[in-house]
UniProtKB/TrEMBL annotation:
<dbReference type="InterPro" id="IPR023286">
    <property type="entry name" value="ABATE_dom_sf"/>
</dbReference>
<feature type="domain" description="Zinc finger CGNR">
    <location>
        <begin position="153"/>
        <end position="196"/>
    </location>
</feature>
<dbReference type="Pfam" id="PF11706">
    <property type="entry name" value="zf-CGNR"/>
</dbReference>
<dbReference type="Pfam" id="PF07336">
    <property type="entry name" value="ABATE"/>
</dbReference>
<dbReference type="InterPro" id="IPR021005">
    <property type="entry name" value="Znf_CGNR"/>
</dbReference>
<dbReference type="InterPro" id="IPR010852">
    <property type="entry name" value="ABATE"/>
</dbReference>
<protein>
    <submittedName>
        <fullName>CGNR zinc finger domain-containing protein</fullName>
    </submittedName>
</protein>
Amino acid sequence: MSRDPARAATQFFGGRVCLDFANTLDWRTSDEPQELIPDYASLLSWSERRGTLPLAASRKLKARAASREAEAILQKGYALRRDIWTISDALRDGRSADLRLVNQMLSGAPRQPELMRQDRGYRHALAGADVSEPLWPVLWSLTALLASDDAGRIGCCEAEGCGWFFVDESPNRTRRWCSSEVCGNRERARRAYAKRKGSA
């Protein structure tokens, strides 16, 4: 992740929608975490950038971004994000995950809609009629991840203070960073500096 919140909000290193959503708290394991979706409008913007919400649906929902209903959904999003952290940590440690919140939210979500073409990709054909819509693709992504062998490939960035999750798709499961170019380079430089300072 980047130290610039605006840049970090455009970085998707998780490999799955649900893990990228989990990574919307930058510097999660540091003393000064940075919130990347501080309000409902930011949640919509994130969904647009990640490609989980059609632009037409996002435009409709923006008109309701300041409502109490939207604020309540944002709080549900924060709870879901915390749950993804807990589930991911449990799976990384070989423990059973507590899925009560996820299953409760799934019970209120509709079945996955048809897909529609947008730009060079595909989106769920969400209509922008329900302020909960930005969270549905996150839930669907999480269930797909948990029901696959990739649930055993969840990793967490080893860079100091990062805490971003990812699916480790390296052949030998040796991935250490959310991004080798960002956290990897920063951590290698930090360790080299500490080593030089120690030698001095």
